[in-house]
Amino acid sequence: DARVTQTPRHKVTEMGQEVTMRCQPILGHNTVFWYRQTMMQGLELLAYFRNRAPLDDSGMPKDRFSAEMPDATLATLKIQPSEPRDSAVYFCASGTGEGEETQYFGPGTRLLVL
Amino acid sequence: QQQVKQSPQSLIVQKGGISIINCAYENTAFDYFPWYQQFPGKGPALLIAIRPDVSEKKEGRFTISFNKSAKQFSLHIMDSQPGDSATYFCAAYSGAGSYQLTFGKGTKLSVIP
Predict the structure, then answer these.
(1) Which residues of B73-85 are buried (b: 16+ CB within 10 A; e: fewer)?
(2) pLDDT score of B14 more than 90
(3) CA dihedral of residues A20, A25, A31, A33 (deg, nearest 10)
(4) In this structure, which of A54, B43, B44, B58 has its CB flanked by the most CB atoms within 10 Å?
């Protein structure tokens, strides 16, 4: 049963600390998306990759967020320094990028910045 | 132009009733409209989807109705069950070199016994 995996599932940190979230997309999927979910804003697209190349990161605060795909099996989202307003659930999703784009979501990383 | 507007924000339905969630869009380049279902503590998952060349698609108790001229589409859940309690997101996809989905804000559905 292929699925997207994310680590950690939960993270509590103090303001100013660096946070790194990891995602393993489904094998063979070549588009990877990072979303942030909050009660107020719903699902926000932060960035996405196609064949490991960043296609769009316009939804991401550039001064503190960075997203990378060091290889086809790993995507990372880093926040440095973290702030309380970054508290949210961060989802990674992957897709084949062919025809209708069905996105397969991971279980999310629940981040709390104190 | 890129927005997908979803309503209502929350919905309470009695068991056995019909749940209806509505979405509207502006961008005529959208050509694929999926609905995602999210249970608490889980990521969203594809529930059902439609292309604008058909006006309705049904899968079990779930039906999408699509009105291309009005640029509106809706999800109907027949015989709603407590297990359907979740947050539902409509979305739209335009392809054309962009692989991203534009999501609505979500509707939290509660089905009460």
Answers:
(1) bbbbbeebeeebb
(2) yes
(3) -40
(4) B44
**Pure H helices in B1-113:** none
Phi, psi of B3 (to 5 degrees): -75, 150
How far apart are the C-alpha atoms of A85 and B110, rounded to whole Å? 28
The token duo for B32 is: 């694929």
Q: Closest partner residue to B93 among A93, A101, A107, by Cβ?
A: A101
Cα–Cα distance measured from residue A22 to residue A7, given in angstroms and rounded to the nearest whole number: 5
* Pairwise CA distance, residues B39 & B45, whole Å: 9
Instruction: Kindly determine whether residue A107 and residue B41, on different chains, have CB atoms separated by under 8 Å.
Output: yes
pLDDT value at position B67? 94
Q: Using an 8 Å Cβ cutoff, are B109 and B7 in contact?
A: no
- Chain A nearest-CA distance from B43, in A, is 5
Q: What is the pLDDT of residue A99?
A: 62
Residue B38 clears pLDDT 90, i.e. is over it: yes
